[in-house]
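tokens incoming
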């Protein structure tokens, strides 16, 4: 979301520059262009608001279904026993937390959403997650699609 917001602000800045340039030109083409640029700006902002609203709905659904995972000695012991993420101890702790929590809820849907596909998207990690009954999503769009399919 933060990266998308940066892209959106950059796009709006560039669009505003084009709008300002078209406003200074009194030709027929410039007036038509100005009208269309202003329409585009309005449509873009409306779409952006819709995306934020959909995100808020999805986030609220997630919050209502999510559960806090409390660190425990067993989780830390698991990080020592698993030979993965040797250079990334925090990722190892995250993975162990998820696996530990999944074991407490064997009959529920378990999902993990992380854009860190460099680490969590590795074949061996996906296999560990799958063996623990956890579905991994590396893109919010894919997760939202899955979430939407569950509410139908």
């Amino acid at each position: 979301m933060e990266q998308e917001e940066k892209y959106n602000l950059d796009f709006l800045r560039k669009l505003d520059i084009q709008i300002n340039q078209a406003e200074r030109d009194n030709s027929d083409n410039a007036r038509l262009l100005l009208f269309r640029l202003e329409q585009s700006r309005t449509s873009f902002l409306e779409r952006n608001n819709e995306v934020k609203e959909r995100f808020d709905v999805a986030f609220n659904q997630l919050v209502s279904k999510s559960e806090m995972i409390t660190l425990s000695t067993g989780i830390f012991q698991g990080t020592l026993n698993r030979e993965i993420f040797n250079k990334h101890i925090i990722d190892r702790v995250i993975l162990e937390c998820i696996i530990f929590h999944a074991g407490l809820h064997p009959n529920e849907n378990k999902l993990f959403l992380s854009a860190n596909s460099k680490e969590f998207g590795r074949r061996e990690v996906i296999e560990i997650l799958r063996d623990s009954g956890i579905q991994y999503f590396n893109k919010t769009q894919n997760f939202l699609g899955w979430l939407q399919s569950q509410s139908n």
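note: The beta strands are 110-113, 134-137.
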